[in-house]
Amino acid sequence: MAKMLQNCGVTSLIVAMTAISFLAAVENSYDLIAIACSKTPYYQLCESTLRNDPKSWDANLNGLTLIMLNSLSFRSNRTLDAINQFLKEKPELKVPLTNCLNLYSSVVNFFIVDAIKAANRSDIPLGQEYMYDSKKSIHDCENGFKPNPSPLGVANGINSDICDIAYNMFGLMNTTLIHS
Ligand SMILES: *[C@@H]1O[C@H](CO)[C@@H](O)[C@H](O)[C@H]1NC(C)=O
Ligand SMILES: *[C@@H]1O[C@H](CO)[C@@H](O)[C@H](O)[C@H]1NC(C)=O
Ligand SMILES: *[C@@H]1O[C@H](CO)[C@@H](O)[C@H](O)[C@H]1NC(C)=O
To answer: Is residue 55 in contact with ligand 2, taking CB distance under 6 Å?
Structure first.
C-alpha cells in the first residue's frame, strides 16, 4: 500500500512536470498568437497584425502586446497623415479635422507611449485605461464629422478595433491562458 502510494506520488510528479513543460512550450510557441487572439473580439485583425511582424515568432504575451501597440502607433501616424492631407483638400471640414488632429496627437504622443510602458511592466489597469482613452479619442474624432460623412471612417474603425484587441491582451497578461 505504502509502495503504491509512493508510486502514485511519483506519477503525479511526472504528470505535473509534463504539464509545466507543456505550458512552457505553449507560452513559447507560435500558437500563443492564436490563443491570445481567440480571446479578443477581432481574431483575424489580431492574428494578421501579429504575424505581420517577424518579432512575434518568439514573443511572449507582453511582447505581442507591444507589437499590437506599435501597430496602433503606425496606423495612427498614417491617419494623422491623412488628416493633414484632408485639411488641404477639404477646407469645409476644417473644424472636425482639426479636432481629429488634436485627438490623434494625444493618442500617438501620450496614450500609446504610456501604454507601451505599462505593457513592459504588466501594469494591466493602466494599460487598459490608455486603450480605453485611445478608443474614446478615435470615436470622438469620428463623431465630430456628423452629420457629414467622415472621410476617416475606415481608418477610425480599424484603429478602434485595435484598441479593443490591445485592451483584451492587457487583460490576459497575468492569467494562465491555457486554463481559461
Ligand atoms: C508615430 O509618430 C510618433 C511621433 O512622430 C513617433 O514617435 C512614433 O515612433 C511613430 N510610430 C511608429 C510606429 O512609427
Ligand atoms: C522595458 O523594460 C526594460 C527593463 O525593465 C528596459 O530595458 C526596456 O527599455 C523597456 N522597454 C520599453 C519599450 O519601455
Ligand atoms: C501582473 O504581474 C506583474 C509581474 O508579474 C505585477 O507587477 C503586476 O502588478 C500584476 N498585475 C496585476 C493586475 O495583478
So the answer is: no
Domain locations along the chain: 31-179
3-state secondary structure 36-96: HHCCCCCHHHHHHHHHCCHHHHHCCHHHHHHHHHHHHHHHHHHHHHHHHHHHHHCHHHHHH
Q: How confident is the model at residue 17 (pLDDT cuts 50, 70, 90)?
A: low
Contacts (Cβ under 8 Å, ≥6 apart) of 113 = none
**pLDDT tens readout for residues 90-105:** 999 999 999 999 999 9
Domain 31-179 -> CATH class: mainly alpha
Calculate how far, in angstroms, residue 119's C-alpha sits from the geometric centre of ligand 2.
Answer: 10
Q: Is 87 in the pocket of ligand 2 (CB under 6 A)?
A: no
- What is the DSSP code (8-state) at residue 175? S
